[in-house]
């Protein structure tokens, strides 16, 4: 699954602000719900904790068709409009005793991303990412498995095989090839998600 390149630098979080004191058994939350926001859209998530270290998360999300920005590809400026819909399942594991604010995260997603490229002359090209499943791996901060308010940040990589780029009627295949070879069509995409929710 490939879409626009996402720059995740300059995301500063104070880890110490997410690490809150000691664990208390009575505060453990086996269930949680949260909402998230990422470059691929918003999401609704449900988590089930097997223990204080490991939980399974189910998610559904998407992005309505939205004009993103103008990108230069091989000397031509394209306005990019993107939309997506997806669902996935992810494992979060907290490997460090006493640091349940830090997580390893991996899973799979199934869905579609549709990008439309339009140049100044009105020529259009569609890039559709529809392979399934797509792999994800990353790290997370926050979302401690405790009752009450939860919040956190996830940073990771999406692994896919790329889009099918189709030129509109009368458009050149050379431009479609340039779009397919551009960083906007990278095989590995960076991703981040900010979220807030409730444990119970």
Descriptive key words:
single chain; 200 residues; mainly beta; Porin; eight-stranded antiparallel β-barrel; 2 helices; disordered N terminus
In short:
The protein is built from two helices and ten strands.
Largest sheet, spatial ordering of strands? 1-2-3-4-5-7-8-10
The number of distinct helices, counting runs of at least 4 residues, comes to 2
Could you tell me how far the N terminus lies from the C terminus, measured between alpha carbons in angstroms? 33 Å
Question: Helices and strands, in N-to-C order?
Answer: HEEEEEEEEEHE
Textual characterization of the structure:
The protein is mainly β. The protein has a single domain, classed as Beta Barrel (Porin), CATH 2.40.160. The chain contains two helices and ten strands, in the order H-E-E-E-E-E-E-E-E-E-H-E. A hairpin with an 8-residue loop joins strand 4 (76-93) and strand 5.
């Amino acid at each position: 699954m490939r879409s626009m390149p996402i720059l995740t630098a300059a995301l500063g979080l104070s880890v110490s602000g997410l690490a809150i004191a000691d664990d208390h058994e009575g505060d453990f939350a086996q269930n949680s719900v949260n909402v998230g926001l990422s470059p691929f859209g918003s999401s609704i998530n449900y988590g089930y904790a097997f223990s204080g270290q490991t939980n399974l998360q189910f998610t559904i999300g998407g992005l309505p068709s939205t004009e993103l920005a103008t990108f230069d590809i091989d000397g031509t400026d394209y306005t990019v409009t993107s939309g997506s819909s997806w669902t996935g399942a992810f494992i979060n594991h907290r490997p460090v005793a006493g640091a349940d604010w830090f997580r390893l995260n991996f899973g799979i997603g199934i869905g579609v991303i549709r990008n439309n490229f339009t140049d100044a002359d009105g020529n259009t090209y569609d890039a559709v990412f529809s392979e399934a499943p797509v792999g994800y791996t990353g790290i997370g901060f926050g979302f401690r498995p405790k009752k009450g308010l939860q919040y956190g940040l996830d940073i990771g990589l999406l692994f896919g095989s790329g889009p099918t780029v189709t030129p509109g009627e009368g458009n050149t295949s050379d431009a479609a090839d340039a779009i397919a070879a551009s960083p906007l069509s990278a095989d590995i995409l960076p991703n981040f998600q900010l979220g807030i929710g409730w444990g119970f």
